[in-house]
Amino acid sequence: MSARRPHSKAAQGVIVMRTIRFLLASLALLAVVATSRTASADGCYICERGSSSACRDYCRYSGAESYENRHRCEARGCRIGGTASCPGAANLRVCLAPVQRAPLAVCDHDRPNG
Description:
- The protein has a four-stranded mixed sheet with strand order 3-1-2-4, with helices on one face.
- The chain is an alpha+beta fold.
- Helix content is 35%, strand content 15%.
């Protein structure tokens, strides 16, 4: 039997670099998967018969299900019958509940002369 030769320093360096590259790629993939689940918290309300033509089938809201989102969809003309994940079919009518953003604070002060 022949004895295994130890790897040269150059070969060991290549192995270490490949291992580091693999670990970094794995961490990047894990970060993308973890953030995509938290970022896509949108949902839809099922609009029942008698809803407006714009909200004939669903009303999409942003964020968690809440009274505010339900009220925004009702204001768009959706008679809410339940919740669902948002469909991707082209033949369904989906209206959007308007998202209320916080007003921007504007810093209005004098610049120092100089």
